[in-house]
Amino acid sequence: MNKRELGKTGILLSELGYGCTAQFGKDFLGKPGITEDQAYSLVLTAYKLGINFFDTGFNYGYCEERLGRCLERLFGEGIKREDLIIQTKGCETLNEDGSYGPNDYSPEWIEKSIEISLKRLKLDYVDLFAIHGAKPEVLSDRLFHLLEDLKKQGVIHAYGVSGVSDEFSNWISKEKCFDYVMMTYNYSEARRNPVIDTLTENGIGILSGGSLNRSLNTLRRIPRNRNELWYLARAYKKFKADLKRSKQFDFVNNVEGFTPQQVSLAYILENPNIASATFNTLSVPHLESNVKAAELKLPEDVKKRIEAIK
Questions:
Q1: pLDDT per position as a tens digit, 16-39
Q2: CB within 8 Å of 169: residues ≥ 6 apart
């Protein structure tokens, strides 16, 4: 698989990344979504298919712990740490009962959360650390000093911010205060292309999250299993407006020679400014199918139809 540099960091990512999020650790009922061996099979398969970039987060259930155990097994197979790029995110606090509390962007907590994440991941460093869901008003000089210090110490190799709006992205382009951003980008977010261009012009790297449009165009309104129920419940709880807008893109389900997931990933990869498009799946066949998008060329008429929708 091709690799792309993340902004000006010198870090080379596989153009597709595997997202160890949500059900990789547990489902919305708090039960294991998959077994340990199934989780390892997903991570190992992703690596064998050319993926070197694995994304997770502090508050993604038990995902950091599970990814840490998977990485330990990979290293036992002879895979070198330097051959992998690991990202985690943080800002959420921990309550005494182990549940997650309100966000805390103080340098003291961010440093502590990175320490906890490293312990969970069984790593000495993470390549990428993103502050989760921040806005300009919660950022401080002290926080940036901490992130720079951690980078000098080798605890993190680059830092960014995830979940950015267009307005926040333009602020980052002006201030040049992060190495990279992670933003929701897929065929339904083509209107963000000018913002992406501006970030790139200012040396800010870009990762794509929500790369499969949160499965909104492939949702079953009558779920057949717990997995489908999870996605349906999430869509109605968090993404009602996006769900309505996504109906305009139902044609992606009928592109000859493509799955709808491949349409989205292929569209993202046509943008050279995106360093990597992350996706998550709990199915090895779906993982293998999604990775094939890196070899596909999206038909020009499909691309034009996508970009005609504002």
A1: 999 998 667 665 555 667 889 999
A2: 181, 183, 195, 198, 199
**Domains of the chain, earliest start first:** 3-308 (3.20.20.100)
Q: List pLDDT tens digits, range 260-273.
A: 999 999 999 999 99
CB 121 within 8 A of CB 67: yes
132 token code pair: 């989760």
pTM for the predicted model, two decimal places: 0.91
Q: E-assigned strands of the chain? A: 3-5, 12-14, 16-19, 53-55, 85-90, 92-94, 100-103, 126-132, 156-162, 180-184, 205-209, 276-279
pLDDT at 216 over 60: no
Q: How far apart are CA 303 and CA 146, in angstroms?
A: 42
Q: Give tens-digit pLDDT for 231-248.
A: 666 666 666 667 677 788
- Picking from 262, 283, 274, the residue whose alpha carbon sits closest to that of residue 213 is 262
Residue from 163, 124, 170, 129 nearest 146 by CA: 129
Question: Distance between CA atoms of 246 and 106, rounded to whole angstroms?
Answer: 37
How far apart are the C-alpha atoms of 267 and 236, rounded to whole Å? 26
Region 149-156 average pLDDT: 98
DSSP 111: H
d(CA 296, CA 299): 9
CB 71 within 8 A of CB 123: yes
On whether the CB atoms of residues 103 and 92 are closer than 8 A, the answer is yes
